[in-house]
Write a structure and sequence with these properties.
271 residues, 36% strand, 4-stranded antiparallel β-sheet, alpha+beta, 9-stranded antiparallel β-sheet
């Protein structure tokens, strides 16, 4: 469940800015064990830039994980807050403050002792890879949700799936599209253009956060697992320790990415 600001529509001036998120991650990702041994905190800070390299600000993420063990498995209630800190030249600009808005997310991750993983009651199932979308640009994630312009940047093509699963098959895991697909063409004069475009950017940013969380887990387990899967993630969560916390954070970031994808799909549908 994501609690966030109202939907927004940006000006043509901001549209021309062609914002594409480029993430620079802090090396100081910390895991804190609170006085209560069942409550842990993970925090990190990320800068975000334009494609030209101009720093817009940073986002501070604090993730609190409350772990409990029961007869059927291990439950993590994960509360994540994202606080966007815009640089002074942007902090009073409505075009930026309405898109980079603070959020609070609460998810319940449950891993059974036979290593099944549930997010808010939904079972995470592994699946075979599919071809997905074919795209050549880097705005969004080509296989799931993206946009690209013509050479003169006067017209944009949007394509997006309503949901995604994770394809763990092969050396490099990647998002796999699911559900209905929508494709639209639009120009900057469309009132939903900026909303759709930046919705895709936010999805890509969140997926990068998930990817970083996955890499942190990979490093923690020493890169010894040949291919991660939801059942493997479940086994790590059940096992306890720092790796279990990082695994819980991986699932939480994945859930947030799916939520942002759903938003982007909805915005594109309004074009």
């Amino acid at each position: 469940m994501v609690i966030k600001g109202s939907e927004w529509i940006l000006s043509k001036k901001f549209i021309s800015f062609l914002l594409i998120m480029t993430l620079v991650f802090s090396n100081a990702v910390s895991v804190v064990f609170a006085e209560n041994s069942n409550i842990h905190v993970i925090s990190d800070e990320t800068e975000f830039k334009t494609i030209e390299g101009e720093i817009l600000g940073s986002v501070t993420t604090v993730t609190t994980i409350e772990r409990s063990e029961g007869s059927q498995g291990v439950k993590n209630v994960i509360t994540e807050s994202k606080k966007f800190n815009l640089n002074p030249e942007y902090e009073n600009n409505k075009n930026y403050t309405e898109i980079f808005t603070d959020t609070l997310t609460v998810n319940t991750i449950f891993a059974t002792y036979d290593y099944k993983v549930y997010v808010n009651g939904e079972l995470m199932n592994d699946k075979e890879p599919s071809m997905g979308l074919r795209a050549i640009d880097k705005a969004g994630i080509p296989s799931v949700c993206h946009y690209y312009s013509n050479n003169s940047m006067t017209s944009y093509t949007f394509a997006c799936y309503e949901s995604m699963n994770y394809n763990w098959v092969g050396d490099h895991a990647k998002p796999d599209p699911e559900g209905s697909n929508i494709q639209k063409q639009a120009t900057a004069s469309n009132q939903w253009f900026a909303t759709a475009k930046n919705g895709v950017d936010l999805f890509a940013m969140q997926f990068s956060t998930f990817d970083t969380a996955l890499m942190s887990l990979w490093i923690e387990v020493g890169g010894t697992i040949a291919a991660l899967s939801w059942s493997t993630i479940g086994a790590i969560i059940v096992g306890g320790g720092v790796a279990a916390l990082l695994a819980g954070n991986v699932v939480n970031q994945w859930s947030s990415a799916k939520s942002y994808l759903g938003n982007a799909y909805s915005y594109i549908g309004k074009l």
